[in-house]
């Protein structure tokens, strides 16, 4: 059960850390900046991974695995890439007790090693496109770590594709952005904004970077997944060429895209409340927990038997029976609320006698979320309620996003808006304007939404002509 859980309104950052640890999603590792993902948190990651992996394979991608260690010379082949990642690199200089002839970098991302291999594998237009994804860990030396959101080592997937034409590569970038958005909204119940990154925020070495941005419960933005158009930058650096139908030799066009365990942090911050987690049913490790209630050995046997029958009727869902003897029903209720299980099923002696159960929704605390359901309707009722919870979480998050998205026209209003949430404002595209706002408020251009209004106006920062609106916000 939650022990002195700080309220979100009192200290949001402390609330987040307490929830992640007390709900047993993760804990701090002995190496600074690293985390241990506990079984409950890893089960959430496995469900997330399974849903994404299914989507990837439906779009023709296959999984592979590439080495953790990369020759340092590989990163140096793409100047912008190495410059962007240099401050975050972990480098191995000794192996087997000897100084290595060439230092090895622990991968911060895999464009370089994959580019090297693609140059070996791709010879002809017949070999294209190459559509590969890998599930792996990466290391980026993090100065200000926070569980899931920013850790030195984290888990993720990274897709890497090679194409014969620029048009094919650009289509791949946007297709995978849509895959991420669909996953975020349908599985995690998190509304997102699809958009293009500014030049200062794009991936090091990319021609263009695209993102899905979500608003957290404190109004800050979280970059939830990214998809990068790499043009021919890495193909030229690693000599990824193919023979055309006409017999000529051309460089490939490449793309990469990724989503990491920081998305778990997004789920916590978008849906959680002062009692702990609220997990979307489609990703929750346990979609429902059955709590038998007894006061004697006879009642214990009776309610446990009924719980087993209920569990058998719900075999298509992820359901757990909480039969812990040493804990009171009240403690169990609070414990599962903290862990965010979408639905609690209570079975006491009177329920057994009445051939019913009591269902309690996590997203609606108290009596409002409780209903008695006959046993012969249990399966249908659970399916209906889980779908209702999933939809309600999305609608609540969408309402929050809309309520915390301002559209300021003047600079003073823009500065005030980013303190509360998203600011959707006209922007001239100038890096100087972006830098000024960041210096004054710490907010950045999160993205230039793909969905743009008609017409043009003036930049909210400098007053110059502007043709695009951008999302400005403080971010994790």
Q: Structural class from helices and strands?
A: alpha+beta
**Whole-number average pLDDT?**
96
Strand share of the residues?
25-35%
**CATH superfamily descriptor of the largest domain:** Bira Bifunctional Protein, Domain 2
Largest sheet: 11 strands, mixed
Distance between the termini: 28 Å
**Domain module count:** 3
Please give the CATH class of the largest domain.
Answer: Alpha Beta
The DSSP helix count reads 14
Q: How much helix is in the residues?
A: 25-40%
What is the CATH architecture descriptor of the largest domain?
2-Layer Sandwich
Largest sheet, order of strands side by side? 3-7-8-14-11-10-9-22-25-21-20
| Unreliable sequence segments | none
Q: Assign an overall shape.
A: globular
Can you describe what's shown?
This protein is an alpha+beta fold. The chain has three domains: 12-271, 2-Layer Sandwich (BirA Bifunctional Protein, domain 2); 288-400, Anticodon-binding domain (Rossmann fold), CATH 3.40.50; 405-473, Translation Initiation Factor IF3. Helix content is 35%, strand content 27%. The protein contains 14 helices and 25 strands. The chain has helices spanning 12-22, 39-58, 72-76, 79-85, 111-121, 166-186, 233-238, 262-271, 297-313, 329-338, 349-353, 378-403, 411-417, 431-441; strands at 26-28, 35-37, 62-63, 69-71, 90-95, 98-106, 130-139, 153-163, 193-196, 208-215, 221-229, 241-243, 249-251, 253-260, 288-292, 319-321, 343-347, 356-361, 370-374, 405-406, 422-427, 444-449, 457-458, 465-466, 468-473. The protein has an eleven-stranded mixed β-sheet, sandwiched between helices. The protein has a five-stranded mixed β-sheet with strand order 16-15-17-18-19, sandwiched between helices. The longest helix has 26 residues, at 378-403. The radius of gyration is 25 Å and the shape is globular.
């Amino acid at each position: 059960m939650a022990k002195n859980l700080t309220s979100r309104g009192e200290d949001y950052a402390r609330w987040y850390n307490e929830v992640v640890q007390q709900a047993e999603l993760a804990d701090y590792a002995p190496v600074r900046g690293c985390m241990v993902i506990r079984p409950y948190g890893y089960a959430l990651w496995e469900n997330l991974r399974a849903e994404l992996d299914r989507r990837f394979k439906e779009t023709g991608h296959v999984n592979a695995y590439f080495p953790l260690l990369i020759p340092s010379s590989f990163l140096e082949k793409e100047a912008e890439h190495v410059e962007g990642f240099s401050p975050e690199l972990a480098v191995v200089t000794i192996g087997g007790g000897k100084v290595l002839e060439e230092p090895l970098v622990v991968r911060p991302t895999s464009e370089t090693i994959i580019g090297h291999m693609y140059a070996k594998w791709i010879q002809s237009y017949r070999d294209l496109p190459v559509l590969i994804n890998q599930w792996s860990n990466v290391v980026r030396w993090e100065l200000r770590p926070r569980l899931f959101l920013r850790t030195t080592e984290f888990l993720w997937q990274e897709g890497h594709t090679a194409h014969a034409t620029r048009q094919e590569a650009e289509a791949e970038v946007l297709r995978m952005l849509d895959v991420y958005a669909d996953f975020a909204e349908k599985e995690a119940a998190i509304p997102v904004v699809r958009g293009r990154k500014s030049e200062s925020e794009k991936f090091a070495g990319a021609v263009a970077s695209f993102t899905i941005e979500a608003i957290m419960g404190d109004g800050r933005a979280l970059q939830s997944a990214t998809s990068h158009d790499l043009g021919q930058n890495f193909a030229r650096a690693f000599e990824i060429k193919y023979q055309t139908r006409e017999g000529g030799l051309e460089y490939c066009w490449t793309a990469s895209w990724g989503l990491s365990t920081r998305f778990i942090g997004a789920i916590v911050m978008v849906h959680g409340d002062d009692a702990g987690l609220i997990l979307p049913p489609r990703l929750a490790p346990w979609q429902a927990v059955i709590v038998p209630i007894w006061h004697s050995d006879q009642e214990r046997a009776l309610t446990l038997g009924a719980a087993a029958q209920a569990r058998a009727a719900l075999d298509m869902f992820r359901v757990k029976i909480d039969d812990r003897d040493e804990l009171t029903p009240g403690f169990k209720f609070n414990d599962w609320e903290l862990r965010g299980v979408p639905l609690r099923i209570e079975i006491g002696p009177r329920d057994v006698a009445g051939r019913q159960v009591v269902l309690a929704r996590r997203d609606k605390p108290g009596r409002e979320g409780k209903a008695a359901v006959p046993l012969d309707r249990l399966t249908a009722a659970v399916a209906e309620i889980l779908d209702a919870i999933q939809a309600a979480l999305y609608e609540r998050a969408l309402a929050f996003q809309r309520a915390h998205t301002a559209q300021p026209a003047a600079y003073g209003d823009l500065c005030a808006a980013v303190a509360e949430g998203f600011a959707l404002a006209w922007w001239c595209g100038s890096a100087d304007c972006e830098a000024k706002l960041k210096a004054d408020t710490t907010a950045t251009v999160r993205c230039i939404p793909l969905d743009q209004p008609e017409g043009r106006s003036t930049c909210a920062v400098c007053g110059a002509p502007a043709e695009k609106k951008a999302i400005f916000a403080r971010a994790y």
